[in-house]
Fold this sequence. Notes:
7-stranded mixed beta sheet, 4-stranded mixed beta sheet, 11% strand, globular
Amino acid sequence: MHDFVHLRLHSEFSVSDSILRIKPLLKLAKNQQMVAVGLTDRHNMFGLVKFYKTCREMGIKPILGSDVNVQGNNFSYQLILLAKNLQGYRQICDWITRSYVENKIKDIPHIKEEWLLANHNDDVIVLSGGIFGDLSYLIANLGFEAALTQAQAWQKIFGDNYFIELQRSKLHYDENIFQQWLNIAEQLHIPVVATHPVQFAKPSDYLAHEVRVCIANGEMLDNSSRKSKYSSDQYFKSAEEMSELFADLPMALHNSLTIAKKCNLEITLGQYFLPNFATPNQQPLEEYLSLLASQGLNKHLEQLYPDVNKRQDQLATYQQRLELEIATIIQMGFAGYFLIVADFIIWAKQNNVPVGPGRGSGAGSLVAFSLGITDIDPLRYNLLFERFLNPERVSMPDFDIDFCQDKREKVIQYVQTKYGSDAVAQIATFGTMSSKAVIKDVGRVLGLPYGLCDSISKLIENTPAKSYGLEEALEHFPELNLRISNADEELLRLWEMSLQLEDLTRNVGKHAAGVLIAPSKLSDFCPLYLADGMQTSQLDKDDVEAIGLVKFDFLGLRNLTIIQESLEQIERLHGIKIHLSNSDFEDKKVYKLLQAGNTTAVFQLESQGMKRLLVKLEPSRFEDIIAVLALYRPGPLGSGMVDDFVQRKKGEAEIDYFHDDLMEVLDPTYGVIVYQEQVMQISQIIGGYTLGGADLLRRAMGKKKKEEMDKHRAIFTEGALTKGYAKELAEKLFDLMAMFAEYGFNKSHTAAYAVISYHTAYLKAYYPACFMAATLSSELDKTDKLYEFYQDCLANNLHILPPDINYSEYRFTPVGSQEIRYALGAIKGIGSNVVEIIVEERNKNGAYSNLIDFCRRVD
Length: 859
């Protein structure tokens, strides 16, 4: 064991000043037999979970902290803060969070000195910041006594957890200041500690690091006026190199180990911390969930089965499923989760915020349907609860919720009000330097011609399904390989530098949908920062889940906004208040529209390929719409599965159910295995699996791991034989399922989305002017989309009236069953503010009589 560990270390998560990736960094530490390493990224803790987990895996002690900005009395400086324990970690999280939310100076967050000096603190270690610290500033500007007084103030609050930080890197060493640090330490008996600013792994990485800094700052590497803030010695020095550097101060080296011994932070991973949900009269969550679910189911059954006798026939089946689900939810500890989701969805529905009928596997839950979380009956469509929540594989349930795009923020505001603004935040995302982008970035910094960099970048042909890394692209694209193999020095430098920087963290953003709700203030779990004015976690979605925070996905769906606007226009224009059913999908006019492929603007059915498939398939029932959403994907389209489906539907090919016991499962898809749920049901009926076990089989088939598949094949075949089925049938079905598992889709998701497809098709079939006006309005600023919808209006005999300052609104408006008035907001160069003034004046004082009148009345 060496007498030194690094305590001042920036990783790629410092975003602009380091190229150190966490795993390679810790491999370096391991190779050099360092027992601990401190991660102190630049005023953030973005990488803390990745660092903590990797340290634990590699047997290295993680020391967590940050290199922070501090606002002092008339000047700013830097300190290193390290967490000794969980309380210290929470304290640092709180200070960093407050700096982003309350105290930005020129858009840079600063911790106020007074926050740090407020009370005695035994949970945080403070390093004086070296050349960038307050002592250095005071020595240089106000003299030794001022620095001595400041050090006494720190010592009073942090005691022996305050260390004077000594540095001897090329750019951070000043002999006079160094001696003054030692004098202060000696006079006040403050311990000293040796650190080294680390930004890259080895000296030869210096150039790549400089390129990375230039990319972040928008600079050119060879610009003569550019002065680097870094030196080539800011690499991960070994303990031997540090011993040589501080040979005269062995205690400063040893104190790095003393600090490592003091830091014993344990972060709980893999345990969930749900927000507290208040029930009436403090009723237990489990009882309240059962009560609401039972009440909700009874209301749904009254609507689904108005006939009392039919309802009575179905009651036992529904109640049995409900009781099974409730028991599983309670056993897994997720009663609170369901209640929280139901609460904000019910609030949204009651406050005129359109909510989608469901998304993902959550539509397979009868409890979710009963609570109003989803709007589709899972029993009617053979949707499985175990596909959503598997008692044999414990993981957090995850409801993805679609809200009207324009009103989504209202629901987030409701949640903030209910649980406290300091307990609610959105989630960070980390943008990286992708293969194509890094070539252009590096080329720009190196001053290479844009045409050269662009031509190399274009040789990497990524698709939506597959993005290639640089090394992978070199193997996959022969022309790229040829260019690089015959590259001159300039191009070779570009390629090698791009390889070094590829996939480094480039920027920090905000997750499109994820919202966190914590049981207490979020800074008890992780620090926050601000993104687009919104409180956002400093951890990405995987890391917030790892530390037990619960993510709720609030997605904005444009089509819900279109449906809502269409219904409002129908009521305004025709005086009819329409309620779109979530259970009656039998309208012949809707299927006639689908069969004709007249589906421009119909949710999920708008593409030319989908239109051709609809014409070919001729859907005639709701199950066909569900199936077409699952089938229109590259896998099924390329496998012959779709043609098989179409031929069987039309009676052109024989339907094979394999066994009479599978007829009910396979009838909705004419004997073709389309859905993951069908794989699970076949495994249950033939192979004797539980549905939970069948979900594990489905996952194994999707991963195609031979060892696991062989194990399941034996279990499936043995189960089939035990139940009296032939071995040949079992093996045939297993092979078929293994093949279809690659293409099988989650029926819960397509069934819920088919509801929106049906609703939009219904509105287009019966109220085309209202529906197309709302659709046009949803794309006001996209000329190509407006043109596409305009052409569809003409094809459907809808007349678009020209814009008129006396009749037009900001959005497109239907003025008759076949007429739409053009939107002022769709005219290029006219903003919403201008239109509001024109319309407001017109509504107040009547129509404009002529151009002079218009100019006189409108500013």
